[in-house]
Design a protein that fits this description.
heterodimer; A: about 350 residues; alpha+beta; 3-stranded antiparallel β-sheet; 15 helices; globular; B: alpha+beta; 6 helices; about 15% strand
Chain lengths: ~350, ~180
């Protein structure tokens, strides 16, 4: 370390979100030369907790791993248990699961976009994006009964059937949402403040993104078309039409653009689910629990989330392990932050949409 | 910038998008909102599946000789609706009542508590939980010759005996007959 550089601690409280990450920044003046992360502030021992609870209880437990991608966790957990139990779920349940997942994805992406505006100092835009997000929150509250935890999934299908009137309601709300997201896309694409703050910032070149194995919108923002929904389709995704969005910019701005364009794709997916929704039962019984192990993965709003389970013939799993997208993505921060300024740390951090509570669980 | 100015002018014209609660009596509350768990005492059989699936440990069932009590502690409940999903009697439902604020001293008393009294068996006199008529109707949907009110008034063991007697062509046991050793 030369005389002109020094180490600056940043965090762990409220760097970008209300979640703790502790950065050790080696800075030269205002410029960041090196980044090291310390984590583990919100470790709750959830994997151990899951090994002390029954398979049914763990659906609710895994839903509480994270707030914004809560549905992805219970969805993937239900899938992994169904794989271990060799359980085939009804067609209608597959569509209902995809619908809930995409509704959550829209809300999650809008939330991240709003926080991006908030950190850039554009408070009115932050409020506006949150207001647009309320349309989706209303859908969640009306259809599933809660604004965050949908409690939609259960082992063998879904708990919450969606009536035809509610499908019409969702379609009606999407009519309201779609022009507003188009407008948001234009604002983020052309607004001077947002462009000055985010364009060309936090570069993650495609080679680095590949080497670090980043997932989700971070990978797609660096031009890598990686999406579990397309690469290894699950639930109803094989029957549905959607595009994998990529942006070549590799910067904070292109990651935001990926999210905003993905909202459009999600709206398309929800519409297809409403149109194609098959009739029939929504849940099947669990049956006997064998000694088995299984794996399942899915595309959460932040990228690939994967679950591994080992059952021992009892109703309590002997091992449950999951890997969340932020774990892969936050290693990329050391590449993104190099050369950035201290004031830009929060923006770069938020661009990977970090979920600390998932990662440290 | 023009894009956002449009939003600003629209917001000026349309006014706030929030409800002025609590100045208005009600705010946006959909019918399916998971607000509070309620138990239908007419349907609860006290089987305990709700207790088995409750991850929050919010449900307790106390069984006594002549009744059982189901208690749901609202402060522990996480509204995951697993109890509603798995209840075989559909005795548990969630109502959209989200007015759950209460003083700290009352925190252990914010409960959904129902005590379900048992009836004596018309044959042996043992206390038992009578099966709701609607459930019996469903169970005996293909047996039109069964007197549902009679079936309802006797306990499962007496029902088995009666069935055995009927199959063997014997007359049904009289109500005052002593309890048969199993």
């Amino acid at each position: 370390m030369s005389i002109s550089t020094y180490t600056m601690p940043l965090g762990p409280v409220h760097v970008a979100l209300e979640e703790p990450v502790y950065f050790h920044l080696t800075v030269e003046g205002e410029d960041i030369k090196n980044v090291e992360l310390t984590s583990g502030h919100v470790h709750r021992g959830m994997e151990r907790m899951a090994m002390q609870r029954t398979l049914v209880k763990n659906v609710t437990l895994t839903e509480r791993v994270c707030s914004l991608c809560s549905n992805s966790h219970s969805f993937t957990y239900s899938m992994v248990v169904e794989n271990a139990l060799n359980l085939a779920i009804p067609e209608r349940a597959k569509y209902l699961r995809v619908m809930a997942e995409e509704i959550k994805r829209v809300a999650s992406h809008l939330f991240n976009t709003a926080i991006q505006a908030h950190i850039a100092g554009f408070k009115s835009l932050f409020m506006h994006v949150m207001e647009v997000r309320e349309v989706v929150q209303d859908i969640k509250e009306t259809v599933y009964g809660n604004r965050m935890n949908l409690a939609s999934n259960c082992i063998g299908g879904v708990k919450c059937d969606v009536t035809n009137e509610l499908l019409d309601y969702i379609m009606k709300q999407l009519e309201v949402l779609e022009p507003q997201t188009d407008e948001l896309y234009d604002i983020f694409q052309t607004n001077h403040i947002m462009l000055t703050r985010t364009k060309g910032l936090g570069l993650l070149p495609t080679e680095d993104a590949l080497a670090l194995g980043v997932v989700g919108p971070v990978a797609r923002g660096s031009g890598i078309a990686r999406d579990v929904r397309r690469d290894s389709p699950y639930a109803a995704y094989p029957d549905l039409e959607f595009d994998v969005i990529t942006e070549p910019g590799c910067c904070v701005h292109s990651r935001t653009m990926v999210r905003l364009r993905e909202i459009k794709e999600s709206i398309k997916l929800i519409r297809q689910c409403c149109d194609k929704m098959p009739e029939g039962p929504v849940c099947v019984h669990m049956g006997k629990i064998p000694v088995n192990e299984a794996f399942a993965h899915s595309e959460a709003p932040r990228g690939e989330v994967s679950y591994y389970i080992r059952t021992n013939g009892t109703d309590i799993p002997s091992r449950l392990k999951w890997r969340v997208p932020s774990y892969m993505n936050w290693k990329a921060l050391s590449v993104m932050m190099k050369g950035a300024q201290i004031a830009e740390v929060a923006l770069v951090l938020n661009s990977i949409d970090p979920c600390v509570s998932c990662t440290e669980r | 910038m023009a894009g956002f100015l449009k939003v600003l002018f629209r917001n000026l014209l349309e006014g706030p998008s929030t409800d002025p609660f609590p100045l208005v009596p009600e705010t946006f509350t959909p019918d399916r909102l998971r607000g509070r768990v309620v138990v239908d005492a007419d349907l609860c059989m006290g089987c305990g599946i709700c207790k088995y699936v409750c991850v929050a440990g919010a449900i307790n069932i106390t069984k006594r000789e002549d009744s059982h009590t189901i208690t749901i502690w609202h402060n522990a409940c996480c509204r995951c609706a697993a109890c509603r999903q798995y209840c075989p009697m559909k005795a548990i439902s969630l109502v959209p009542d989200w007015h759950s604020a209460h003083p700290q001293e009352e925190k252990y008393h914010v409960l959904e508590q129902k005590t379900i009294p048992y009836q004596p068996c018309a044959v042996c006199g043992k206390m038992m939980r009578t099966v709701p008529s609607a459930t019996l109707k469903k169970l005996y949907v293909n047996n039109h010759d069964v007197d549902l009110e009679h079936v309802r008034s006797i306990c499962p063991s007496c029902r088995q005996l009666e069935d055995a007697r009927r199959s063997a062509g014997l007359p049904p046991a009289a109500p005052e007959a002593p309890a048969v050793e199993q």
